[in-house]
Specification:
This protein is mainly alpha-helical. The chain has one domain. Helices cover 52% and strands 0% of the residues. It contains four helices and no strands. It has helices at residues 11-17, 23-35, 47-51, 67-88. Helix 2 (23-35) runs antiparallel to helix 4. The two termini are 16 Å apart.
Length: 90
């Protein structure tokens, strides 16, 4: 059980839903960095969006792959997730 929220401590809860200190701040920083490159922040709805970040492809309005943005997405999402996990386990 999550000591902060009192709900089942699942990975999705820890990474996306819990009010643990730093989680919301980390996602805000990640979003700010992302918006400097791409004007639309992807909606991270569930843990599948996190697990699938390595396969994500960012495309422009003409359905062309933006390689740099795709790479940035993979790095930002995976690193933010790792950092939140480490915060939780300190």
């Amino acid at each position: 059980m999550c000591h902060k929220c009192g709900t089942t401590e699942e990975l999705e809860h820890i990474i996306l839903k819990c009010d643990i200190p730093g989680q919301e701040i980390m996602w805000d920083i990640t979003k700010t960095l992302w918006l400097k490159k791409i004007p639309r922040w992807p909606d991270l709805k569930n843990i599948g969006d996190i697990f699938g970040c390595g396969l994500a492809e960012v495309k422009d309005g003409h359905n062309q792959l933006i390689k740099g943005a795709s790479r940035l997405y993979r790095i930002l999402i995976s690193e933010a997730t790792l950092f939140i996990w480490k915060l939780k386990n300190e």
